[in-house]
Write a structure and sequence with these properties.
The chain has 465 residues and is an alpha+beta fold. It is 15% helix and 31% strand. It has seven helices and 22 strands. The protein has a 16-stranded mixed sheet that branches. Strands 1-2 form a two-stranded antiparallel ribbon. It has a two-stranded antiparallel ribbon with strand order 5-6. The longest helix is centred in the first third of the chain and has 20 residues. The relative contact order is 0.14.
Length: 465
């Protein structure tokens, strides 16, 4: 070491340490201990601070002071092409246009709370104060619960990003679930059903678990997964045993991994990022569209546009009307008596459900990659569950391309096994491609039950289940 280096960075043999040419006395050992203890105390105080009760009440009990009221909108009324103007302030214009054209009628239902489970609320109370965003927008110090429970501030440039993380680390499908069976029907604008695919879909959160054991995480988890998704096709014969596996990593700096197993070829293929934004098995959905948005939060820009009261497709499954004959190709009723949501309206594209007035957060979601096939999503996030019942998707020219509706049932009015869990149940879907006059409609039988971790492995795909 040269004398110059000693002069700049210190000499261990003296009691004086040098910093860039200036001498300062060493701190006494006792002073260092005091400073260290104060720093640790400060950290522990921050980690132990809890979210205020006012914030908890505002965030998780959106209707504690009463449900939204809008003049002219009452439970039990039907909105159709004869009276559509009554809904012009509570329905997005692109969907209102479908009513005006006579494609669909909307029945208004009673607004009910969809309250998240007490375990999720308590986790928010305990851990949310320590959650931060990195300069790149990644989530830091997250343990469980809602990441950012404060009411979104229109003046906060990160408000949209925080809502996106609330969605991504939300409670959709609980800690784990199975949609068994799951029917996807491809329908032309003239009502012709091209085909119906029968799936099973499985979901498992490996981390941040609050309701189902094991808690707080599934071990071992050597890949560092946050979530796994597995799907398998049972019908029709030409697609039988096709499987899809998606890995979402806890560290979002890593891109999701996805694999496709083709039963007729008996081989596994890794899906590229480009294929995630291609038609999934010929449907009107991309892999990135699953659950509203299955991609990485940081691949998008999330602009918060404000809070509104709008009609949303949320309801009690057991209170819906079940009267239609079997859906073409697929049944409306299972052997155990479970009724799938029925579809009607133009070309049988529209679920026969009720819509209710709800508080929602409106976002504009734009891709950072200019080659992405969508130019933007207009996204409606429920203020109770932080899920996404409705979105509108636009092509690169800025023209409406798809309407994505996810009808959501309250869990207490669904299968008995789902009662009390607190997660809304994705229950009926239509994805309408308005440009090619085509739709994919989805009918669910969702179970909020434990899943086997071995389902979510590449080896499981190779075994063909």
């Amino acid at each position: 070491m040269t004398n110059r280096m000693r002069h700049n960075w210190g000499h261990r043999g003296n009691q004086t340490r040098y910093y860039r040419g200036k001498s300062q006395p060493r701190l006494a050992v006792s002073s260092l201990i005091v400073l260290t203890c104060l720093s640790m105390l400060s950290f522990l105080t921050m980690a132990q601070a809890e979210v205020s009760e006012d914030t908890i009440q505002e965030t998780f009990y959106a209707y504690r002071n009463g449900v939204p009221q809008v003049p002219g909108i009452k439970p039990g009324m039907v909105i159709n092409q004869n009276n559509w103007e009554v809904a012009k302030d509570v329905m997005y214009p692109e969907y209102l246009d479908l009513i005006k054209k006579g494609w669909v009628e909307i029945k208004v239902g009673e607004t009910i709370p969809f309250t998240l489970p007490k375990e999720y609320i308590e986790a928010t109370r305990k851990y949310a104060q320590q959650v931060k965003l990195s300069p790149e927008g990644y989530l830091e110090n997250y343990v469980a619960g809602l990441a950012f429970p404060e009411h979104p501030d229109p003046n906060d440039p990160q408000a949209g990003l925080k809502l996106a993380w609330n969605f991504k680390r939300g409670f959709n499908w609980s800690d784990n679930a199975c949609i068994c069976p799951f029917y996807w029907s491809y329908i032309k604008g003239d009502g012709t059903v091209e085909k119906t695919i029968k799936f099973d879909f499985h979901f498992l959160n490996f981390k941040h678990r609050v309701v189902h054991d094991p808690r707080p995480e599934v071990l071992p988890n050597p890949e560092g997964l946050f979530r796994g998704i597995h799907a398998q096709v049972y019908e029709p014969f030409d697609l039988k045993d096709t499987q899809v596996l998606i890995w979402q990593y806890e560290d979002e700096r890593k891109r999701d991994d996805s694999w496709l197993y083709l039963g007729f070829q008996r081989r596994v293929r890794r899906l590229s990022q480009e294929q995630r934004a291609d038609s999934f098995l010929g449907s009107d959905a991309f892999v990135d569209d699953f659950e509203g948005y299955e991609g990485r939060v940081t691949d998008m820009n999330w602009k918060y546009l404000g809070e509104k009261v709008l009609l949303m497709p949320m309801y009690k499954h057991n209170a819906m009307e079940f009267k239609l004959p079997d859906f073409p190709i697929a049944k409306n009723t299972d052997e155990d008596g479970y009724h799938y949501i029925e579809f009607g309206g133009r070309a049988n594209w529209f679920p026969n459900i009720t819509w209710q007035l709800r508080k929602v957060y409106v976002l504009e979601v734009t891709p950072k990659d200019p080659a992405y096939p969508y130019s933007k999503r207009v996204w409606f996030q429920d203020a109770d569950q932080y899920t996404n019942p409705l979105s509108f998707i636009y092509d690169r020219k800025g023209e409406l391309w798809k309407i994505f509706l996810i009808g959501k049932s309250h869990p207490d009015f669904h299968l008995p096994e789902n009662k009390g869990i607190g997660a809304n149940i994705d229950n009926s879907v239509h994805i309408i491609d308005v440009q090619r006059d085509h739709a994919t409609v989805l009918r669910f039988k969702g179970h909020l039950v434990s899943q086997k971790p071995e389902i979510f492995t590449v080896q499981n795909l190779r075994q063909g289940r």
